[in-house]
Amino acid sequence: MNGLQLLRSNPIRIRSKMNASELQQLVAQGEGQQLEFKRSLAELETAARTVVAFANTDGGALLFGVRDAGDIIGVEVGQTTKERITSLVTETSDPVIYPSVEFIKVGERTVIAVHVAASENRPHLCKGRAYKRVGAADVQLSRDEYERLLLSRATAAFDRQPMDGTSQTDLSEERVHWYLKLRAEKRGIATPETPLPDLLLSIGAAVAQAGRLIPSRAGILCFGKHPQEVMPHSQVRLARFQGTATSHFIDRADLQGTLPEMIDAAEQFIRRNTRLAAKIVNFRRREVTEYPFVAIREAICNAVCHRDYRIEGAAIRISIFDDRIEVNSPGGLPLGVTLANIERKHVLRNPIIANYLYDVFYIEKWGTGIARMRRAMREHGLAEPRLEDLHDFFAVTFYGPGDRILDLIPEEGETDLRLLGLNERQIESLRMMTNEGRELTNSTYRQLFEVSRNTASRDLQGLLQTGWVKTIGNGKGRRYRAV
Predict the structure, then answer these.
(1) Which residues, other chains included, contact 338 with Cβ-Cβ below 8 Å and sequence gap of 6+?
(2) Does the global pTM surpass 0.90?
(3) Structural domain of residue 462, as residue ranges?
(4) Which of 95, 116, 300, 448 has the fewest beta carbons closer than 10 A?
């Protein structure tokens, strides 16, 4: 642990929008890691350096109109005072810092409070030099410390960063509480009784910046009212194509909403556009889906959770063909992860998003998704999915059974339906109704087997008594189909 990290152990909380009583309580603590006193605006030049030091460390408040000993003497405030302070800080800081400035009346005196949040974009410079806060002093960063901060900024998780151009009103309180309620049910974690702003900060859905709460990218994607208005490329696009090529589609959807909403909707689309087959096995009707949906859902969750959201203009694409399903996610494998070690090496590109989805059981334990997909496909009687790192995209392809879908249902031994008293006509008609999905009438039964009306009626009544066949309609329009 380096020195700069040690200084970030126990930051105090300094409220913006303080009243006189709260200000006096703060001043009584004396100058320190997150608090600096300035007698007057004549010290504005050195105050800019303190603002940078706060931003590079734990954040803090700078008070004009307070002596070093803690005496509140106040300052004179003019019409342009706030603009003067803000302009000096923005003009001397790089990357630019936008402080929050407020005037607080204490009796007849006015104190100016400049609030600075710990920055996600550090290190900041003041006139070309970087500073950190050490106790009550502003200390210039060493070259090693500066380079470490630069590296941490370059590698900082994208989903933790504030979403420019948004505010707390862009987050849905209803969706936050949905997540908390489901997390409590799934994980046995108590629902916190915390004010919404504190709650958003604690779960990483927002960050404090210049005295305001700014939604994080993860917050917008998982709890935003309209995520695609801010990040249009975060949608999921699905298509069901005719045949095995992308020439003609027979169904499509461009999904929008939060990440959990799109995961659920994508699974529903795939269920709607894949087959369900059934046949009689060992005196029972057995059904099988074309694909194991536990594997398909895992691939959808992985794509949504681990895609590279920095790549704009590219959405997650899911394509359904007669013989396969392809899931394409923008962004190749993270640095250090390869197709050879993908089940052993786990690098979270979006840790906040991953934590949300893990909390509500949308994903299992981190790093097990690929193994679960492979196992589910094998157990379903299909080939393991094909994984491809295409650099700009990561692709997962699931190959289906094609015309062999009924082979996915194990026979579990031979079943002699004659033991139930069924004749050859009844057995063949049961096969057609169950395995081919056909509906029969008394008339079609007579035509198929060249029997009389009475014989057809007797055979069909016998099939009804097995419990595997039911009737639809009455009179001449009565039809017989598998249950």
Answers:
(1) 345, 389
(2) no
(3) 417-482
(4) 95
Indicate whether 112 belongs to any domain. yes
Answer yes or no: do 26 and 119 share one domain: yes
The 10s digit of each residue's pLDDT in 440-459 is 999 999 999 999 999 999 99
Place of tokens 């895609």: 307
Q: Which amino acid is at 437?
A: G
Q: Specify if 259 maps to a domain.
A: yes
Tokens for 186, please give them. 């799934």
CB-side exposure of 396: number of CA atoms within 13 Å?
24
The strand pairing partners of 66, in sequence order, are 72
Measured between alpha carbons, how far is residue 54 from residues 217, 233, 235, 309 in Å?
A: 24, 35, 38, 30
For the chain, the average pLDDT equals 86
The per-residue DSSP string of 48-95 comes to HHHHHHHHHTT-EEEEETB-TTS-B------TTHHHHHHHHHHHHEES
Compute how many other C-beta atoms are within 10 angstroms of the C-beta atom of residue 48: 24
Contacts with 419 (C-beta within 8 Å, 6 or more apart), sequence order: none
Q: Are residues 283 and 325 in the same domain?
A: yes
Where residue 454 sits, what CATH number does that domain have?
1.10.10.10
